[in-house]
Amino acid sequence: MMNAEEFRKHGHDLVDWMADYFEQIEQFPVKSKVAPGDILAQLPETPPHEGEPFPNIMADFQKTIVPGMTHWQHPGFFAYFNANNSFPSILGEMLMATMGAQCMIWETSPAAAELEERTMQWLAQMIGLPNNLHGVIQDTASTATLVALLTAREKYSNYEVNQKGFGNHLDFRVYCSQETHSSIEKGVKIAGFGKENLVKIEVDGDFALNAKTLEEAIKKDITAGKKPLCVVAAIGTTGTTAIDPLDKIANICKKYNCWLHVDAAYAGSALVLPELQWMIKGVEQANSFVFNPHKWLFVNFDCTAYYVKDKEALLRTFEILPEYLKTGTRGKVKDYRDWGIQLGRRFRALKLWFVIRNFGVKGLQDKIRKHNRLAHWLKEKVEAHTEMKILAPVSLNLVCFQYRPKGIADEEKINKINAEILQNINDTGKFYITHTKLKGKYAIRVVPGQTHVAQRHVEQFWELLLETIGNTSPTA
Q1: Per-residue pLDDT tens over the stretch 179-199
Q2: Which residue blocks in 84-193 are alpha helix, DSSP H?
């Protein structure tokens, strides 16, 4: 069992390894090349009876675990959306782990509660949210969306579902676009509405929710005796970073008394740029809003910023007060365990505070502007190529495109060729990219947004793409 002196020594060694990792990360393949079961086969089937020296554990970590990891902090990670970290965030995470605080209520760590309150106020100011929204840190956007759905359910049922079950409240309807994240559907199922009561609204040519179709769907449901409950507007969809028309959606929600939840999980970080705050025009009418600093604001996973207008509805939905959690400060402070699903809470505000203070608002803005410039550089290259086509508007730092070789009109064949190109690029280990389907077309998605990505990385990707296309059979 490790003592304090051994901890000090191994801790110094680990920090050296961590610094080396970032300096040498481009030597690793971005995506792990192991096959299913490779790691499991190297792990003993039974736990050790006697304790082992830490150097032995670390040696196995480097030998067995590192080769089985996909390196999300590699500058060539252009897949999905980023889950970035940064040096100040890592240091904050280390201090969180060291103190091991359980920050469920103010009494258990006053500084944690009050720092969370202040950092959430800072974030709201930074991204242009109105001051009528109250913030709390959740673990993920999926959880935050579920919290919004549950709060809407209780408020609009006069809190009867929590008390008595659904009873006569079986006809609630939730609306989102066809491009909205899968967490909406999962939340609808968990909240008890039933998948059939999630209405997916068609999108326009830019893959954003069609507000006219939304209103028609709501009217149709009212006529059929349904109860429109909640509309989820996406600011930056997962497939294309499409921006739903929030102001139009907000007016519809107001007209039909629906809860408006804004899912800005990825794109919300870009709101630190004043020139992009047009994306949330109408947000003052939103009932709830979520974005993930752990995606594009350089804060280690997990750290989700959730804001709600009706704080009392949130508290009434979730608060439970057993005797062992009663305190003399209740009502005078924020006990964040009443602000969501979890009782136990990590001190996530610490790493967020470290990042905001170390980068400064300007530093965060500079990074995100740079990432957007890199994506637009790639967009221009694709547009200038005679056999490539941009498949969705490039609003932020996501580029969706397709290679369309001359002489081939069969869409399935084109899709197959693009899938082969993607796989061949990933097999090099130099970059990791993913895909989506847009109106039946296989779209290669490229997201240059890792904390340390530079112009040279996007240029290297472009060169590799051209080389890969040159080596791909047009009859694949």
Answers
A1: 988 899 999 999 999 999 999
A2: 87-99, 110-127, 141-156, 160-164, 182-190
